[in-house]
Amino acid sequence: MAKDSQELLNLFGHLFQQRFFVGAAIRSSQTEDSQESNQRGQLRVLRLLAQQEPLTNSQIVEKLDIRPSSASVLVSKLEEDGLVKKTNSPEDKRVTFISLTTEGRDAIEKSKKLKNDLSDSFFESLTNDEQEQLDGLLRKLLIDLENNAPKWDDKRKWSEFFNSSRGFSPLNHRKFPQGFNFHDEN
């Protein structure tokens, strides 16, 4: 079984060496809370408004857990691009509501279509039954890994693991001040 499981791991390794696949998988699996770029930040605001609108700036801040200044910049950019509009509250002129424009709704739909087309292109060589089987197997594997991943509290075990793998030696990570230091300094 060890040889078979090693071959499976090698196949996963080859799959993740495909840059296009890795990039798409990482982007697809990122949570909506990921804030790696301003563009994705704008998309987060658009998606939030698509789910629930109108919202105030402070509601956007709270729901996306971002700074008020960041929300203001994002909303201003989206307004400048014609994707959202601001309207004053009829009850309280100090309150401004933010909602999607038709162009904003179109941008959300375009984003969804792009993501769907991308995932369809990755798995088009598999039948529906094979896709369902793969889904079940991957979910089972993820649950098992989450429940039974190595819990190596001893830093030496991690050191042995990484140092035995080509490319993971602390000396190969010179951009870090002292490589990865897995050894206690005591």
Automatic annotation (TrEMBL):
Please state every residue range assigned to the domain named HTH marR-type: 5-143
Check the UniProt entry and state the signal peptide residues, or none.
none
Q: Which UniProt keywords apply?
A: DNA-binding, Transcription, Transcription regulation
Pfam families assigned to the protein according to its UniProt record, in alphabetical order: MarR
Q: Which GO terms describe its molecular function?
A: DNA binding; DNA-binding transcription factor activity
This protein's name: Transcriptional regulator
